Amino acid sequence: MSELRWDPLKQNWVIIATERGRRPRDFQVEPESFSGESCPFCYGNEEKTHPEIMALREAGEPNQPGWRVRVIPNKYPALRIEGELKSRGYGPYDVMEGVGAHEVIIETPDHGRALADLSADEIAEVLGVYRARLADLSRDPRLRYLVLFKNQGSCAGATLSHAHSQLIAVPLTPPVAVTELRTCREFYEAKERCIFCDVIEFELAKGERVVKEFPNFVTLTPYASCFPFELRLYPKRHVHDFTLMDDHDLADLAVALKDMLCRLKSVLRDPPYNFILHTAPPRQPRQGKPEFWSSLEYDYHWHIELVPRLTQIAGFEWGTGFFINPTSPEDAATFLREAEI
Amino acid sequence: MSELRWDPLKQNWVIIATERGRRPRDFQVEPESFSGESCPFCYGNEEKTHPEIMALREAGEPNQPGWRVRVIPNKYPALRIEGELKSRGYGPYDVMEGVGAHEVIIETPDHGRALADLSADEIAEVLGVYRARLADLSRDPRLRYLVLFKNQGSCAGATLSHAHSQLIAVPLTPPVAVTELRTCREFYEAKERCIFCDVIEFELAKGERVVKEFPNFVTLTPYASCFPFELRLYPKRHVHDFTLMDDHDLADLAVALKDMLCRLKSVLRDPPYNFILHTAPPRQPRQGKPEFWSSLEYDYHWHIELVPRLTQIAGFEWGTGFFINPTSPEDAATFLREAEI
């Protein structure tokens, strides 16, 4: 059973997840690498995973081949759906059971294809599965925040090479989200505008950090990028919640996302990367009480954040929270704009 | 010239440091690896670095062999000592010149010896140089915060293998420091006690996370460790500022630090790691106005934080600020306590 522990010094919760029981020697082994035959995410190996939560398939039985996108519980979940939410004190600390959800979205049955290699139609199906799982978990009032992310490449934290993304639902609003939600809230209260909409408008007018503009989406390098070649993909229209996107929106998004991934692959020769889907938190009240962040105006603006893993987070970054980026976002945008894809 | 850019969404400054001018292909090369002959940190190659800022040597001229510990400006500084502090608006953002300092402390002339391999007396000399450089930079009223850190191993961000640490001085108090300083301030205001002293007292009483206790110092694994085998080295006595440590203190600290590094090396087979010296910020008023964090009681408690780099910071961590740690701090402490050193 994992635990959430409160650090009173850093003012943050940490998930101590000992399901894998990692001992000193476990950190010296290379990430698992399965060929198609032994890979638990491939056709024919469905029994190697927990039973599926959902799948897109034409016909046939669950947990058999024939699917196009498949969602399963994580084998080593950071958080589990069973358990009690109550926290308790422990000396100067607090602790609570690790309640939440941890799912894996297998993006394709093909072992050798990355998300960037899928067609826009196939990517739209993956995005539709993201939407379905986010909408489903949003109904559980114990879950305060949902984070959908992808780790591609072992340097980016992936332990299996077969294309997949993950969805973790946490019982508390995490600090990165609190900062962004508070910023949006305060900006909206002061100006009755969305701060993301302001940033997007400014960037479209300036142009020097725009990588590619589509009718309904835009890809750009953030002005204050923490990492070289960091990217954002924004819907131009103000929508706080990704689950409100309809099938037409997802088809457009799939084209923009594929474009972004292919430019990255071309310019940086298939780098490891993380992407994170940032969307407004669920709005279900817990114990009759709505979460502060979900109780007022819909002032958030969903988006995708992509971080190629080209540099290490080192002592300075960890010790301060400041980042040193050796490539200007303007240069990065130029390289990405001119990419041959 | 580097720039500090304000991200209004994440509410943080980022340093865009383009001295190295890193283009896409630059990220595919391996970290530099010099043999003793070509290494700029070795004896006889002093002219390959900028002129030294200070050095410990018996006799002889500056920038010649004969030194034991040597401090030089970073060849590719993230921040420079020249420049103006004024920030200005730029659309929804803010920007200021990258004013600060970036120094390198070469811990030994021996190419093949790591910090853990030095004798306690040699480590005490390195710590004395830390103290001298921190004290010197503390006198510059433009510098709000000083961070002394070490990246050991290329996976921990080191670009040169020769043993060295770095000191960066920034013109703004960074977010990690703001959180800790605010916590200490609020705790002290409420209870007239130091929160770190409370944590240390609790841990010494419990014992299960204590790795090694010395008369004046203690090494432990934090209750809410973000990473496996994360460590803290605390002075038991309440001291807010590292530069107040006298030579006897540093001699004791060197013994404790060497013990910590040797345990880590033994249990995890010489892992890459980062350590960060957390100390109270300088107390010089800037433009006649003291920094909020340095103006009241001396409620901070200096310490060393050590993070072995065994796991990757991936999409979940980056997207939320929450961390998933697969090894309990109690297990880590047991392994480290039982290490043969």
Question: What are its keywords?
Answer:
homodimer; 341 residues; alpha+beta; ten-stranded antiparallel β-sheet; EC 2.7.7.12 (chains A, B); nucleotidyltransferase (chains A, B); metal-binding (chains A, B); carbohydrate metabolism (chains A, B)
Q: How helix-rich are the residues of chain A, as a percent range?
A: 10-25%
Termini separation of chain A: 46 Å
Pattern of helices and strands of chain A = EEEEEEEHEEHHEEEHEEHEH
Widest sheet: strand ordering of chain A: 3-4-7-9-8-13-14-12-11-10
Estimated radius of gyration of chain A: 20 Å
State the secondary-structure class of chain A.
alpha+beta
User: Tell me, what is the CATH class of chain A?
Assistant: Alpha Beta
Question: What is the strand tally of chain A?
Answer: 15
CATH architecture field of chain A? 2-Layer Sandwich
Largest sheet descriptor of chain A = 10 strands, antiparallel
Please name the two chains that share the biggest interface, counting residues whose Cβ lies under 8 Å from a Cβ on the partner chain.
A-B, 93 and 93 residues
What is the name of the CATH topology of chain A? HIT family, subunit A
Ranges of chain A where pLDDT stays below 50 over 5 or more residues in a row are: none
**CATH homologous superfamily of chain A - what is it?**
HIT-like
Mean pLDDT of chain A: 92
Give the domain tally of chain A: 1
Protein name (chains A, B): Galactose-1-phosphate uridylyltransferase
Cofactor (chains A, B): Zn(2+)
Family (chains A, B): Belongs to the galactose-1-phosphate uridylyltransferase type 1 family.
EC number (chains A, B): 2.7.7.12
